[in-house]
């Protein structure tokens, strides 16, 4: 299903079919048309946010998210909204679509089979992006990886397996994309990276039980996780979630600047 233009996304909801696990981002109607902001030169940035979209979505379709972050602290933040490569997806009968890794079934439950080898390949790509930002001079403590749905699952995997402490990882409507055997591969420094996990109780695409399985997994792995449940929220990202993310990142930027 084709996505609307960026301007249209800010004058009505962004809606993708549930079968693609794309986000419905509940955005406020802005009083003026959206004008894309200039991309901050990474060399001048003091912080970095990487946003990973859901299955069947695209990076550019999610760029309006950064306009929610109006605090002065984000004036020196560089954002990146990459698009997933096109791959066949098992849960959609092998159809080729933008996908970070394979997914075996929808709805995703706490017991959904894991496509670990596919996830680990995607993690390599995310780590390469993070390495490039670190090489540009940004402190890893000021790097934040965030993602929705499939992108949330990839966020979790990427943060856990990165060999440095990052500013944080934020999972929206995601799930744990591997089993407990991965714990032996988690670097001690990665265990100091805080995790924010947000999930709608009425999610029928990535079931709430899949989100609830995250904190116990992370606790067992030795990580700190803040879990926030949103009543009456389906497979969506709300303004409330994004404003909390803004505060969550801002507090960590202040402590790690």
TrEMBL record:
Residues 45-250 form the Phospholipase/carboxylesterase/thioesterase domain. The chain crosses the membrane at residues 12-30. GO terms for molecular function: carboxylic ester hydrolase activity; palmitoyl-(protein) hydrolase activity. GO terms for cellular component: cytoplasm. Keywords: Fatty acid metabolism, Hydrolase, Lipid metabolism, Membrane, Transmembrane, Transmembrane helix. GO terms for biological process: fatty acid metabolic process. The keyword Hydrolase applies. Belongs to the AB hydrolase superfamily. AB hydrolase 2 family. This is Carboxylesterase SOBER1-like. It comes from Momordica charantia.
